[in-house]
Amino acid sequence: MPIPTVRLVAIFVSLQVATMLGFACAATPPRVSPAPGEQADRIVVTKSTHTLVLYSHGAVLRTYKVALGRGSGRKEQQGDNRTPEGHYRIDAHNAHSTCHLSLHISYPNSDDRAKAIASHQPSGGDIMIHGLPNGLGYLGALHRATDWTYGFIAVTDAEMEEIYKLVPNNTPIDIQP
């Protein structure tokens, strides 16, 4: 008895997804646990290259590929799904996030608030660096295939665990175009 076309398509799609997940996982180098006492003292996110770089005493400590907000350009108002640009600080660690761990970014800064007031729009807030939504960690590096966040900066769960350990509160973060 021949296999129905719908079932063949479902099997083919399942194999394609499994293959993509396998390649995504294979393409992610294994992470090395931070050395005792190792700490970042600066973060630079470059939106155009989708990178987050941790620095320690001016030297690159780690580099990560990231997914960003779905909207392009500089964040202008609450709900625009854009990742902000500017100078901020990490002001909180959240181990109970809806995504796998998170670091809160001090957005909006005074410039962002002034622009929001001038445009009569709320600036928004609660911008984070975070892992994948809880329960979706198996997606790994595949999540970077598109910008999907609401203006946040997303990394894999393993990367977030490392960043969470390396970045203390009050670390400056520069988010560049």
Describe this structure in words.
This protein has 177 residues and is of the alpha+beta class. The chain has one domain: L,D-transpeptidase catalytic domain-like, CATH 2.40.440. The chain is built from 3 helices and 8 strands, in the order H-E-E-E-E-E-H-E-E-H-E. An 8-stranded mixed β-sheet has the order 3-2-1-8-4-5-6-7. A hairpin with a 4-residue loop joins strand 1 and strand 2. The protein is globular and about 45 Å long. The termini are far apart.
Q: What is the fold-level CATH name, i.e. the topology?
A: L,D-transpeptidase catalytic domain-like
What global shape is seen?
globular
String of helices and strands = HEEEEEHEEHE
How many helices?
3
CATH homologous superfamily caption: L,D-transpeptidase catalytic domain-like
Q: At CATH's second level, what is the architecture?
A: Beta Barrel
Which class best fits the helix and strand makeup?
alpha+beta
Average pLDDT number: 86
Give the percentage of residues in beta strands.
Answer: 15-25%
Distance from N terminus to C terminus (CA atoms, Å) equals 58 Å
The low-pLDDT segments are 8-15, 17-30
Largest sheet report: 8 strands, mixed
Oligomerization state: single chain
The helix fraction, in percent, is: 10-25%
Radius of gyration, Cα only, in angstroms? 19 Å
Strand order of the largest sheet: 3-2-1-8-4-5-6-7
State the total count of DSSP E strands. 8
Tally of individual domains: 1
Q: What is the highest CATH level, the class?
A: Mainly Beta
